[in-house]
Target: Regulatory protein LuxR
Amino acid sequence: MTMALRQQRQHFYWVNIYRGVVLLFVLWIMMAFPPPHVHGVLLTAGFVALYTGILVGVGRTTKKWRYFQIVLGMALVLDALAWGVMLLQFSTTTQTDAPALLPALSFEGLLYWDVLGGFLGLGLSELLLLYLWFYQHTVTHMAFTTQALVFWMGLNALVTWLPIQGSIKVKRRFATRYVPIRQVRPHNDSSNQTPTVSPSIDETGNLDTISSITELTQREQEIYNLLKANYSLMDIATSCQIEYTTVKTHVRNIYRKLRVSGRRELP
Model:
């Protein structure tokens, strides 16, 4: 199991506890509503508990990072559907404060996929807010005003943007102030040191390949070594203390300079 998969699995379990607390809070609020609405929320809560148990079981048996991302995506989509059903129970009044619960969906995405997940959760929560407004307007004919819609959308975006911006600043500060451990190790410590690229004539005597390797930047040479060591892209990002998207850019540059189309073709 890779380090990135282990970390995301831990986040997934903690998020399940967080989702349970939020769901209990929603149930407590709904106890003051008429029985039909309470029954609807109870059915939704049972559905949430059922698919949560299934996803946790699938997540425990998933060994590959890519497949675990599918599990996280399914959890986020199903949570969005569950939030949509529960928001309908709050849509019987124009003075509803139900949108105040929507940032919980954005925080869930932030814990899953960091900044990208935060924006994904924010987009889903804003769509659910528009869905609630259109439902009130077309079905119950008592939608809250346009000013209230703009207020809730802005407040939801602000509450979600603050932790996203904080995560971006922390990552940038960490990347600029802290040097990876392997870069400060003494040269005589060869036990865990990442091997450096020292081009030499390979068995086929392909001088063009050697010249291409020497054209790689220092960071690209480091990522090249990790690719040859069968590190995943997420593990490379963790090891080099850089963003996942930056790793993908470096990998594309490496493939282009070495004139290959995949990791298996690397010299």
Observations:
- The CA atoms of residues 126 and 153 lie 6 Å apart.
- Residues 174-193, 197-205 have pLDDT under 50 and may be disordered.
- The chain has two domains: 3-177, 189-265.
